[in-house]
Amino acid sequence: MAERNQAELQSVERALEALLDGVSRLEGERIACPDADGRVLVDDVRAAIDVPPADNSAMDGFALASADSGRQLPISQRIPAGQPAQPLAPGTCARIFTGSEIPAGADCVAIQENVERVGDTAIVPVTQAGQNVRRRGLDVTMGQPLLGAGTRLGAAALGLLAGQGYTTVDVVRRPRVALLLTGDEIVEPGQPLSSGQIYNSNGPMLAALIRRFGGELVSQVRVADDFGTTLARLEEAAAVADVIVTTGGVSVGEEDHVKPALERLGTLSLWRLAMRPGKPLALGTIGSTRLVGLPGNPVSSYVGAWLYLRPLLGRLQGCADRESLPVISAEAQFETRTQGRRHYMRANLEFHGERILATPYPEQSSAVLTSCAETNAFAVIPADSHIRPGDRVDCLWLQG
After folding, report:
1. In terms of DSSP H, where are the helices of the chain?
2. pLDDT by residue (tens digit) across 56-105?
3. pTM, two decimal places
4. Spelled out in words, what is the top-level CATH class assigned to the domain 6-26+173-323?
5. E strand or H helix at 180, and its extent?
6. 215 Cα distance to chain centroid
7. CATH 2.170.190.11 assigned to 56-134
8. How many of the other CB atoms lie within 10 Å of CB of 387?
9. Residues paired with residue 179 on neighbouring β-strands, in sequence order
10. Superfamily per CATH, domain 28-50+139-172
């Protein structure tokens, strides 16, 4: 049966535009480089030194002037890595090791496997100038751009900073996030369940996603189905957080108190989106604090966190690669039809050389959280579409 009142539904893109309107990057802070994994640079970083800082050997062997190669040469010095090299005496060679500085007067290295040792001399084959030599500044030259503002620091970037001698780095402060979980029916794992109760799956799931998206979880509170309590918890959250995330409580039922509480404290807009799962979305502000109201359904909450919370936290960090997910065109391994709403199917991307296959989880019901745990992408199926096996579909790859 066709869905009713589709004209009232808004697009995902329009909701995201409204969510990010007026959002700017947070201020920076200086932290120790070893603590900066996953953090986002405030400013461009330029190289302070050349890397390598001098010509050095790419191999264990013998350093010499290429003009002296092809004959037997006295070994005039030994140059371990980390030790300064003396100028090479003319007509001699130097025993050298990988990473050791090339001595003045040498312009090549003959690898040890090709050299015959005869006492304190070496018979060196013909070797070309520059052979087995890593030139100064081969990797990085002083003053060149090293890392750009907005870069999310990972292992290699932290290695670059360490290689430049940096001990601290200026990064964007983590967005502070308060998580409010509504519903008297929610019980913490480890407690016995009574009739009508469910375990709190949204809390641990969203807390993990908040951290994955670069946020700092400053509070996680269960909120009873009571107006006064909801009002108090929202006020407390707004005082300490840049972003409040709620689950449930924004419908018009007698036990849905987030909507009237937020309307008293700030502003609220309710969105009915042309998507599944996760049609309802609440967006609001309390002072300068942004609120994202996700559905109480865990699958819808999971999908909504990737589509809305991740871009918001990315914008607050000034991190472009967190504002949007990688889009990968894949070959559908399924058949499906949609009506008036876009479907975000939980699917796995499989890479087979140049072929990329999208295989959906067998059960796409919004009641099946396993569909999120066992997949790595959302296959985006446009509204009013018929997808057949072999058709191309755009997939959002769920990378942090």
Report:
1. 12-20, 155-163, 202-212, 227-240, 258-265, 298-304, 310-317, 320-323, 370-373
2. 999 999 999 999 999 999 999 999 999 999 999 999 999 999 999 999 99
3. 0.89
4. alpha beta
5. strand 176-182
6. 12
7. yes
8. 20
9. 220, 245
10. Molybdopterin biosynthesis moea protein, domain 2 (3.90.105.10)
